[in-house]
Design brief:
This protein is α+β, with helices and mostly antiparallel strands. It has one domain (33-116): YajQ-like, domain 2 (Alpha-Beta Plaits). 46% of the residues lie in helices and 28% in strands. It has 4 helices and 4 strands. It has a 4-stranded antiparallel beta sheet, with helices on one face. Strand 1 and strand 2 (64-70) form a beta hairpin.
Amino acid sequence: MSRLRIRQEILGLFKPNFYFFVCLVVYWRFYKVNEKTVNKIINEYNRLRSPEATSSLTKMKDNKLWLKFQGPFCESCGVYDYFEDFIIEAQNEKIKLIIKSIEQIDVETYFVQFENF
């Protein structure tokens, strides 16, 4: 059986109804990334991890975030763990993020792009 036919059969079983669209709107309205929520996540992250690592919002557009991470990161722990910790803090606020790119600017400075999915 071809993949196209399998997809058609699966989609044929799923028929969106009014309840589905209400849930989608509620999800989009309350769980999308907004500046207030991001600042709350950043404050909590900084409270728990400062002075080893601090984050600040550089740019926010659509479902993408650009954050600047600074600090004398614990190199033995792994620098990327600090970025993944931010994802965990976001999950506490019902925001699902993934890392799209990481750019090291200086020895103690990184720019990380996250995307909401």
